[in-house]
Amino acid sequence: MTDHSHTDTHHPGPPRFVQVGERIVDPIFVDMAHGYDRDNLAPTIAGTPDRDPDNYDRTDFTWRLVAKPDGSSTGLEYAPTPYSDLTQYDEGLHNTVEFQPDAPGVYRFELDAPDGTHELTIEAFPAPGGDDEVQVFDIEGEVAGGAGNDVGGPPRLELVGEFDPDAGEFVVESNPELASDSFAVEDDLTVSFRPHDAASLSVEDVVVEGTTARIPVEAVDEPTSLFAAPFDGVRVGATDEIVLRPDGEIEYPNRPPEWLDDAVMYEIFPRSFASEDGEADFQYLTEKVDYLAGLGVDIVWLTPIVPAWSAEIDTPPGGPHGYSTGDYFDVADDLGTLEDFEAFVDACHEADIRVCFDLVVNHCGWTNEKWQDTIAQLGEQPEDPYAFPDVEAWNTDSKYFDWFDRQTTASEHDVAPAQTSFFNVRLQPNLNYGNLALREHILAAVDFWSEYVDAFRCDIAWGVPHSFWKEARRLTREKDAEFMWLDESVPYLTSMGESEFDLHFDTTEFMFTAHAVARGERPPSDLLDAIEARDEHGFPTYSRILNTTENHDESRIYWEAKAEGHREDPAQAERAALAAAFTLPGVPFLYYGQERLIAEYGTRRESPFADRDDRFDDLEKDPYKRAFMNWDLDDLVDDSDEADTEARRAVEERLEFVSGLVDFYHESDVLGPNANLVREGYRTDATDDVLAFGLEAGDQKRVVVINFGPEPRQVQLRPSVDTTDLFTGDDLAVDSSDDAVTVAVETLAVFETDSLFGQGN
């Protein structure tokens, strides 16, 4: 457990490393048109967070920019709206501020708080530019469009420390690396080191020699965080953190928990985990823990279990998804009680399964009592049962009025200052992280649920300021060093790994590529590009990224192959995609029902808008994405005994395949996020179906072959590859010659080899 002397103060957090032109901004909306990736400078909540705190007074916190580089004319900003024609409503509390550096150098801030004055440093590097010196920095913190081809990805580093007792100093190596597609050279790499501003260790005490830092132990009189960021002359990479202790011990608070390296994650849409509507509750889920244990999964992610409008009405749009929180400190009545949930968690723990809670804090729900308290008068209820009445007057005296994002003007439905909502869905009002009391309320929810569960999956993580995530993760890690944080950020952002999240979604690269391969639109080798893109985006080697093929927000990959693509055997395409998810470097992931062919034999959910032309929801694209589980193998089809027998066989074979895949993953010393991917040379006539690659973990090497096609495919490998498949135990050789052995692969084969020979070598 990491204990820092500054964790129980209002200090605004660790130093920042940014580039000129980069905004530390919390925009009025969070979508691609109005701003993406939120942040601000904010005081930390001191002490135990209160569920229902009073608002902080404007005079409680005062920010000052006390030093800036020569040539800078920037200043502090309050509620700017840089990406919108609409103006953000601001009550003037100003407990948080926003900022944009306009010159390279060091900026120093002071925060006067009830517990004293705190300092914060921001180091700004030059703006990224192309060959023509045109700035290419954009609102996502990524290089925009084709400009990325001119500069490549950002560098990365990994801090490794050692205490030298003879010299009486800590030696911290930063190990910087250029991105594989970078146009920079090694000599361009520099590393900036900065201690936490609340520590007694000063930046002058840190002696930097190249990319190594040396710190005398006498300068470390308390557990002290040291931060570092790499710069390649064009782009700044993700920040890492190391903690130095006076006794010479060293900690790495920015590392994922070790248990994640051998974990298989399983997502459950709770109200669909039964065979029919209304059947599933926490007691029902508890009864299924033995099934989950038999499947071999290590962590179960439940989509939201809190009270929510979508779970309280008949045939809700998208199903009873629960992503519109009515109460952050309770569970939904239809699922049971908090005690029932605790019993489910206990049963999971007894089976060595961790539980992941879905934390939805970019927005809440229309039924949330604090949101309702801000409404003084509503118009008539619309005829459409899925619409909400207009707001004709606001209760501006409500203590919660400033807890929600608002625009200064009226909107189509609301008088000024109108609400803003997640992607304009009125059901989901946006929360205002510029209000310190709101931050404390949400932090109290984090504190509350972390007493029950082992991990958080954070919905719309890019819609919540980085400053909050850093504070929230630190709170849970001080209670449990093994607590895990998973972000939903689409596309992924390396900045989410800066002492914030341990595990990251990979929707735009891996999942979308897997869908395209399953549809038959892209070659399977593109999955290797998706894995290698993680390095090009600047993810450090210790980062952990999910290999997901589907989830509750995306179409079932089987449905993609069957309804949207032209694969002859969609079930085989799905099997192959799962094989890729488990064997390529990353953390494997299952969405409930994949192991039972749910998209073929489950009971679909119907959209309430199926007969309407003016409304639609995402179930209309794929009605099986939140289908009911097909538990009863005696009731899979209604056609005939022969069809029922075939369906039973198909489901049992799929379950056996997935269970075997999970077991094989756990037993392998090579598979997992630490393996190195090698583009192993091979030959085949079925390039549209076959994926082949090498894996290297220490002295052990493997060649993996995966077949998306409906029939076994032949692949020629180098003669040094042992043709015995480690997955099935069968020898798959069908031919051999002086320069190759030929194997026939049905779905997945893993071969041992004493060497790897990458394409192009």
UniProtKB/TrEMBL annotation:
Keyword Magnesium belongs to the record: no
Superkingdom field: Archaea
Record-level Gene Ontology MF annotations: hydrolase activity
Gene3D superfamilies named among the record's database cross-references: Glycosidases
Annotated keywords: Hydrolase
An individual GO BP term: carbohydrate metabolic process
InterPro entries in UniProt: GH (IPR017853), GH13_cat_dom (IPR006047)
Domain Glycosyl hydrolase family 13 catalytic: 267-658
SMART domains (alphabetical): Aamy (SM00642)
Listed name of the protein: Alpha-amylase family glycosyl hydrolase
Record organism: Halapricum hydrolyticum
